[in-house]
Amino acid sequence: MLYLQDVTIKRGSKIVFYNWNAKIKNSKVTIISGKNGVGKSTLLRAIAGMIPLEKGIVKNYNNEIFKDQIKWGQNLIYIDSKNGLSKDLTVYENLKTWSEMKGWKTSDDDLQKALDSVDMLNRKNLYVSQCSEGLKKRAALSRLYLSLLFDVEFWLLDEPTNELDQNSIILFNKLIQRFLENKGTILLACHELKLFDFNFELLNLDLLKK
Amino acid sequence: MSLQSSFIEIFISHIKREFLINFRSLVDVISIISFMILIVTLFVLGIGPFEEKLRLISNAIFWIGLILAIIPSLEKTLQRDYDNGWLDQTITSPTPMELILLSKSLAYWLIVIIPLLISLPLFIVLLNINLKLIPWLLISILVGGLSISLIGIIGSALTLGAKRGNILLPILIIPLIIPILIFGVGISEAVRINESPVNNLFLLIGFTLIYLVISPFISAFLIRIAISR
């Protein structure tokens, strides 16, 4: 359970959330929806620890998450439209360096399976500079499979389905299904709700702003 | 099954990543060295065929060439990872940003220093550098290069996301590099007039150690600000 208590988030000089309380249920998918510019990405970035809170706290059960940045860093995966792939490396090398940065010891086998889970195994030696946007997104989403092997509790995904084709969305749904079985919690900002074949909680930020 | 790697392993794997990226697109590395060769050549041709003049200022030319050649590539060191979202990934990972930046500056130092050492004979011939100076020159490049890359990371972090960062960066970091230039040239000058260069070397090492301690913290602080914008 993730509790947001009296949270005020500023982006520049603009107040995006003011004394806001929310509860995010665990082992569930919570979809954050709302108009463009309503603050979906800001909320995800704040929870991920990239935007410092002006006021208020975020608790995972009774632990304040930003008190222990190392533990929180082990506990979450954040993927947004920027993907975080270096264009001078191959898909495989990107995944490998990323998992090393997360502090995980992954075998070659794990990495291959991760790429296979998003159907990128046959493209593992492709340079990211040669990938289309959809392929880049799939390469980024292969991290989700790796996180299933380690004790990750949260996925924070900012519009992950934007560039994906039909087949990739099915694979993405499968990954989510497996993560839910592992008692994982997913926070997902998205516009198209009919893409997902599972139950989800809806957090509509438009209602909040009225 | 959470197998936690130690910080040392993460540190080394990060240096490997930087090497992989930089030596795959060799353009940056080659441009630094060729730019430096060009600056030195221009100076030498500009002075004309007077050995006496060259001997007086050859040390200064070498250091100024090195600094001017490094500066254009500094901006990219962090900008690239900022643009593709890698810094977002590092900030949401258990690895402290300071560690990553330290590994980045060490990697950058090695990436610049190795080709420079290879091309050193060329500079020795071009600038007619005295042979007894060479060991001291090597040490001062190694130490001075490290502090230039540590300062450069601060500057690079400071101009992240700024428009016209490539113009702003030199203005911000050249004042910080001045002590390195003074003591670097001081070492060579001391050898030239048969004095002991040790004092200048210790001062250079001292400055480098100060930057080694403060640079990762300052630049991590600046990157957090850049990311939170």
Structure summary:
With 210 residues, chain A is α/β, with parallel strands linked by helices. Chain A is built from 7 helices and 9 strands. The mean pLDDT of chain A is 87.
Description:
- The complex is a heterodimer of chains A (about 210) and B (about 230).
- Chain A is of the alpha/beta class and about 210 residues long.
- Chain A is about 35% helix and about 25% strand.
- Chain A has a 5-stranded parallel sheet, with helices on both faces. In chain A, strands 2-1-4-5 form a 4-stranded antiparallel sheet, covered by helices on one side.
- With about 230 residues, chain B is mainly alpha-helical.
- The mean pLDDT of chain B is about 90.
- Chain B has one domain.
- The two termini of chain B are about 35 Å apart.
- At the A-B interface, helix 2, strand 6 and helix 3 of A face helix 1, helix 3, helix 4 and helix 9 of B.
Task: Sum up the structure in keywords.
heterodimer, A: 210 residues, alpha/beta, Rossmann fold, 35% helix, globular, B: 229 residues, mainly alpha, 9 helices, 84% helix, elongated
Gyration radius of chain B, in Å? 19 Å
In total, how many beta strands of chain B?
0
Stretches of chain B where pLDDT is under 50 for at least 5 consecutive residues are: none
* Secondary-structure element order of chain B, N to C: HHHHHHHHH
What does the secondary structure layout of this molecule look like, with pairings?
The complex is a heterodimer of chains A (210) and B (229).
Chain A: E1 2-11, E2 14-24, E3 29-33, H1 40-48, E4 55-60, E5 63-64, H2 69-75, E6 76-79, H3 91-101, H4 108-117, H5 133-149, E7 154-158, H6 166-181, E8 185-189, E9 200-204, H7 205-208
Parallel strand pairs in A: 3-8, 3-9, 6-7, 7-8
Antiparallel strand pairs in A: 1-2, 1-4, 4-5
Helix pairs in contact in A: 3-5, 4-5, 5-6
Chain B: H1 7-24, H2 27-47, H3 51-83, H4 86-91, H5 97-118, H6 120-127, H7 134-158, H8 165-192, H9 198-228
Helix pairs in contact in B: 1-5, 2-3, 2-5, 2-6, 3-7, 3-8, 5-7, 5-9, 7-8, 7-9, 8-9
